[in-house]
Specification:
50% of the residues lie in helices and 14% in strands. The chain is α+β, with helices and mostly antiparallel strands. It has one domain. The strands form 6 sheets. A 3-stranded antiparallel beta sheet has the order 4-11-10, with no helix packed on it. It has a 3-stranded antiparallel beta sheet with strand order 7-8-9, with no helix packed on it. The protein has a two-stranded antiparallel sheet with strand order 1-14. Helix 1 runs parallel beside helix 3 and helix 4 packs across helix 5. Bound molecules: zinc ion (2 copies).
Length: 340
C-alpha cells in the first residue's frame, strides 16, 4: 500500500493532519508554553482589565494574544527548512586514497568521502561538513539538529519552548513571536501597575490597593520575571539579525575560537541584514510530507529503525556507516571493472 512521506520519515518529527503540520519530537512542551501565555492573559482580562478604560485594555490583550498564538503556530508547526536525506553518498565527491588502503595483498585505493569541502559564498571560501546521517554535504549555515535528527538550512537553534528547530523558514515568525510576547508582557505589566495606581487613588494606600486586587501584583511579578527571558531573547536576536549571525554560529565561535562558516561572510550591512530577514520571500519547503512516496525510494526499514533510545541511535549510526562503506565499495568495484 502506498505510504505518505510523513509515514516513512526518518527524522524524529511528529506529524498531524496527515503530514500537513510538522512538529519537533518535544512538541508536548508547547502545552506548557501555551499555558504560560494564555493563563496570565485570561487572569488579566477577567480580573484586571474590567477595572480599566471600559475593558479596552482587555480587548487589546485579547487581539494581542491571538497574534502571539498565530505566530507560535507558524513557528512550531512548519518545516523549518529541512534538507531531505540522500539515499546514497554523493559519488561525485569520492576521492581515492591509495596510502590508506587496507586491502590484503592488493593496492586497491580506498574510496572515501572527505569530511569537509570548500564552497564559495560571496566570493569567500567557506568549509561545509559532510553529514553521515543525511549523506550529504550540508549547505553553508546548515546544521544537523540532534533533537529532530534532520539537517536544517540556516539552522539557528532547537527551541524546546516551541518544540521545533528554528531555521531558514521559521526564523522570521520565531522572532515576531518572541518580540510580540515581549510587547504583550510589557502591556500587561503596565496595565496591572496602572490598576494598582487607580486603586491606590481610590483607597488611599498601596497596601489597601493590593489587598483589593492581589492578582494585579501577581501579574506584575510574573511579567517582570517573564520579561527578562523574552525581552532578553528579543534583544539578543535583534543583535543577531543586525549582524547576520545565527545562535549556532555565535556559540560555535565562542567555544571553539573559530567557526566553520565565518559569520562575517553573510553580513551585508545592518539595513540589508534586517531586510533579508523581514522582507525576503520565504523559500518553499523541500519536503512534501503529505505526498505519497514509493517504497524503494525511501527505505522503509530505516525509517522504522529511526528514533528510540540511545542504543538504538548508536546502532542506526553504525548501520549508516556500514551502508556508506558498502556503497563506496560497490562504486570502487564498478570503477575497477570499468578500468579492466
Ligand atoms: Zn544531517
Ligand atoms: Zn530540532
Amino acid at each position: 500500500m502506498a505510504k505518505r512521506q510523513y509515514e516513512v520519515w526518518q527524522g524524529k518529527n511528529k506529524f498531524i493532519f496527515k503530514g500537513r503540520l510538522i512538529f519537533g519530537p518535544d512538541a508536548k512542551s508547547l502545552i506548557v508554553t501555551l499555558l504560560l501565555i494564555i493563563v496570565p492573559v485570561i487572569i488579566f482580562c477577567t480580573n484586571v482589565a474590567r477595572n480599566l478604560f471600559d475593558e479596552t485594555s482587555g480587548n487589546i490583550a485579547g487581539y494581542a494574544i491571538l497574534m502571539v498564538l498565530v505566530l507560535l503556530l507558524l513557528t512550531s508547526a512548519r518545516d523549518p527548512g529541512i534538507v531531505p536525506r540522500n539515499l546514497h553518498p554523493p559519488t561525485e565527491e569520492i576521492c581515492y586514497d591509495s596510502s590508506a588502503s587496507i586491502d590484503i595483498g592488493r593496492q586497491t585505493p580506498t574510496p572515501r568521502l572527505p569530511p569537509t569541502k570548500e564552497v564559495i559564498v560571496n566570493g569567500v571560501p567557506v568549509r561545509v561538513k559532510y553529514c553521515i546521517t543525511c549523506q550529504l554535504y550540508r549547505p553553508p549555515r546548515c546544521s544537523h539538529c540532534s533533537v529532530c535528527d534532520n539537517c536544517v538550512e540556516r539552522f539557528d537553534h532547537h527551541c524546546p519552548w516551541v518544540g521545533q528547530c528554528i531555521g531558514l523558514r521559521n526564523y522570521r515568525s520565531f522572532f515576531l513571536f518572541i518580540s510580540s510576547s515581549t510587547i504583550l508582557c510589557i502591556f500587561i505589566f503596565a496595565m496591572s501597575a496602572l490598576n494598582i495606581k487607580f486603586l491606590t487613588d481610590d483607597y488611599g494606600t498601596v497596601w489597601k490597593a493590593i489587598k483589593e486586587s492581589p492578582l494585579s501584583l501577581v501579574l506584575m511579578v510574573y511579567c517582570f520575571i517573564f520579561l527578562w527571558f523574552v525581552g532578553g531573547l528579543t534583544c539578543f536576536h535583534l543583535y543577531l539579525i543586525g549582524t547576520n549571525q545565527t545562535t549556532c554560529e555565535t556559540f560555535r565561535i565562542r567555544y571553539q575560537g573559530q567557526g566553520l562558516a565565518r559569520p562575517r561572510v553573510y553580513d551585508r550591512g545592518c539595513f540589508n541584514n534586517f531586510r533579508q530577514v523581514f522582507c525576503s520571500k520565504i523559500k518553499p519547503s523541500r519536503n512534501n510530507f503529505h505526498a505519497y512516496v514509493q517504497e524503494n525510494e525511501t527505505g522503509f526499514g530505516r525509517a522504522m529503525n529511526s528514533g528510540g533510545d540511545l542504543e538504538g541511535n548508536r546502532r542506526e549510526k553504525v548501520e549508516d556507516d556500514r551502508e556508506i562503506g558498502g556503497d563506496l565499495l560497490k562504486i570502487s568495484q564498478r570503477r575497477e571493472a570499468e578500468d579492466v
